[in-house]
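User: structure tokens for this one?
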Amino acid sequence: MKGILGRKVGMTQLLTARGEVVPVTIIEAGPCFVTQIKTLETDGYTAIQLGFDETDKARRLTKGQLGHLRKKSLPMLRTLREFRLKNIEDYQIGQKILADVFLARERVDVAGISKGRGFQGGVKRHGFRGGPRTHGQSDRLRAPGASSSGTTPGRLYKGKRMAGHMGNVPVTVSNLWVVLVDPERNLLAVRGAVPGPRGGLLRITEARKQG
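Assistant:
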């Protein structure tokens, strides 16, 4: 498995060689640095840690991050994330990972934090139908209706769909085509939409369910 960290730039469209207009999301992917390598002997599993988003201001990092990076003579990187790998022999501390880790026509999974929608009612959050629009129901149009019976069970079951906080949760979109790779500008273009707002952190990995 291979992967890289990036930030969502925005959506646009590209024209393919066959004249097809394709909606794509532009991602600023990398450059990332290998900041740690975990092995079976020392950690019980194999993985690499990638650092992303270089900064020149030490106050933007915690003291733990600073010590971790300075000990290995690495630049100040604001974001550190771990990628589980079976084969770690091809990586060294300080190695730079660029957008060309992926090729055009590859399939990838993109994970991020969805846009926060705040507190929302059942109609918007879960797609409830609401109450009838007639018979004097002037104030019940978007109400959730009955939520439980009074006798059995006499309470709400855990997980009952109701109004509440919507969005701002981890989301993964699977099997997106890589349409364009531009390693000189650290850009990837993937077909379709990805989670999160513009500027949101994304984790791009090789697709797990390629069919």
